[in-house]
Amino acid sequence: MNIKIAKTNNPVIDLIKDRWSARSFSPKDISQHELETILEAGSWAFSSSNSQPWNFIYTHRKDASFQKLVDCLMGGNQPWAKNASVLIAVLANKKNDNGTENKIAKHDVGAANATLMLQALSMGIYGHVMGGFHADKTIETLSIDAEKHEPIVFIALGYLDSADKLEEPFKARELTARSRKSLSEISKHFV
Ligand SMILES: Cc1cc2nc3c(=O)[nH]c(=O)nc-3n(C[C@H](O)[C@H](O)[C@H](O)COP(=O)(O)O)c2cc1C
């Protein structure tokens, strides 16, 4: 199995080094209990004023609704995401409890997604975030109240399978080593 461990310059913890965005998913199902563990982990992310402005709408591969969420994805994501065990549409709550706009909700949704991804990996389950989806179709398919909620990303979850199962260009992407900007590009010491 292809494992794309990050090569870091500093002693980053294994869970972060070992996470990567997989595309080859095995036929093994994620159970409802496993999924609830992953979602609960996401719920323990930090958020502004503990507003928790996230909402996860999920479907298992065996559900009749699964294909409806696959159909919401853009063409470049469908060929591999259709083999995920679980698909999640992640929504942001646009408003605070007092009715004002939550301007920072997308930050908190990202924090929840990162948190649930690390929980998933600790259970041997890989995830892949997708911004490539049709927003209008998602809103219609899921009967989302667009005044209150905005679909932000989809997440595919599944156990890992061989890259050989993928067609190109997805196979090549699955096998390409991960890379990051250097610390000097993304940070500076303000003295
Ligand atoms: C907000 C967001 C949107 C993304 N959208 C897509 C997508 O539509 N399709 C895709 O294949 N990967 C998508 N990705 C995955 C990124 O390409 C991936 O995280 C990045 O290349 C780093 O690779 P790594 O996660 O394996 O470290 C997305 C990731 C994020 C965080």
Features:
191 residues; alpha+beta; NADH Oxidase; 4-stranded antiparallel β-sheet; 8 helices; globular; binds flavin mononucleotide
What does the model show?
By secondary structure, the chain is an alpha+beta fold. It has a single domain, classed as NADH Oxidase. 32% of the residues lie in helices and 17% in strands. It has eight helices and four strands. It has helices at 14-18, 32-43, 66-70, 78-81, 105-122, 135-141, 170-175, 183-186, and strands spanning 54-60, 86-93, 125-130, 149-159. The protein has a four-stranded antiparallel β-sheet with strand order 1-2-4-3, sandwiched between helices. The longest helix has 18 residues, at 105-122. The radius of gyration is 17 Å and the shape is globular. The model has no long low-confidence stretch (mean pLDDT 97). Flavin mononucleotide is lined by residues 20-21, 77, 129-132, 153, 178.
What would the average pLDDT be, to the nearest integer?
97
CATH first level? Alpha Beta
Number of folding domains? 1
CA-CA gap between termini: 46 Å
CATH superfamily: NADH Oxidase
Strand order of the largest sheet: 1-2-4-3
Structural class: alpha+beta
Estimated helix fraction: 25-40%
Indicate the CATH topology.
NADH Oxidase
Q: For the report, how would you describe the main beta sheet? A: 4 strands, antiparallel
In brief:
By secondary structure, the chain is an alpha+beta fold. Helices cover 32% and strands 17% of the residues. Residues 20-21, 77, 129-132, 153, 178 line the site of flavin mononucleotide.
Q: What is the secondary structure topology, with strand pairs?
A:
Blueprint: H1 14-18, H2 32-43, E1 54-60, H3 66-70, H4 78-81, E2 86-93, H5 105-122, E3 125-130, H6 135-141, E4 149-159, H7 170-175, H8 183-186
Antiparallel strand pairs: 1-2, 2-4, 3-4
Helix pairs in contact: 2-5
